[in-house]
Amino acid sequence: MRTLSLMMVALALAGCGDSAVQNAHKAVAYQLQDPGSAQFRADRELADGSVCGEVNGKNSYGAYSGFGHYLARKQADGFQVTLDPQASNASAASTCGYPLVAAAAPAPVPSTTATPATSAKGVGDIAGVKWSVQLVSTSAGSARLLSQKLKGYGYTAYITHEDTVSRVYVGPFDSRSQATQKLDQLRRDHKMRGVIVRYRGVGDLPAASVAHG
């Protein structure tokens, strides 16, 4: 119901008098966490009046999430908006002409038959290497706040401080597939974006530069 309601409001917001791109911007911005922070680039109006482009906006922690694709599909009374920050929506990618990013490989299904230890590793795993989900690079205060919230959600989070930049991570995990599953959960449940990176143990950084949430 929420998705339908957002779509109906987005359609209503695309008023008369403005250009197709301007109306599309209104409809797209309404679906962001902070509509007033919306930044647009690479806008392109299609032959049917639909608009493609990229949008960036602030998340609930006041940090910009990064530009992602959008499609504002022209309707009789406005626009139907598809946000595709991960470039994983086949219909939007085909309509707007941007490359579709393949979905992450699913975690391997445990086998009841004994196999060599090396075969238990998922795609992209490396023996002896752990993985983390890197979420944001931000100020130390914002990083601590995010780490505390993640802990409240039940995640194991830690922060690294290098120069003036603080980075927030979730993990570490024994396999890349586990980290990928956790990233998918963060995207689905908390609208957080991130990347999978190799875990840098405390021994790789100054002792004071790592803080666990």
Task: Report on this structure.
There is one protein chain. The protein is of the alpha+beta class and 213 residues long. The chain folds into two domains: 2-96, no CATH class; 123-212, Sporulation related repeat (Alpha-Beta Plaits, 2-Layer Sandwich). 27% of the residues lie in helices and 27% in strands. It contains five helices and nine strands. It has helices spanning 2-13, 20-30, 90-96, 140-152, 176-190, and strands spanning 39-45, 51-56, 68-75, 78-84, 131-138, 157-162, 165-173, 195-198, 210-212. The strands form two sheets. Strands 8-5-7-6-9 form a five-stranded antiparallel β-sheet. A four-stranded antiparallel β-sheet has the order 1-2-3-4, sandwiched between helices. Strand 1 (39-45) and strand 2 form a beta hairpin. Helix 1 (2-13) packs antiparallel against helix 2 (20-30). The chain is globular. It starts with a helix and ends with a strand. The model is unreliable at 1-16, 114-121 and 202-213 (pLDDT under 50).
- H/E element sequence: HHEEEEHEHEEHEE
What is the makeup of the main sheet? 5 strands, antiparallel
Q: Structurally, how many domains make up the residues?
A: 2
N-to-C terminal Cα separation, in Å? 35 Å
Morphology call: globular
Strand segment tally:
9
Mean pLDDT: 79
Query: Helical percent range?
Result: 25-40%
Give the helix tally: 5
Please report which band the strand proportion falls in: under 5%, 5-15%, 15-25%, 25-35%, 35-45% or over 45%: 25-35%
Instruction: Provide the structure class.
Output: alpha+beta
Poorly predicted regions: 1-16, 114-121, 202-213
As a whole number of angstroms, the C-alpha radius of gyration is 20 Å
Cross-sheet strand order for the largest sheet:
8-5-7-6-9
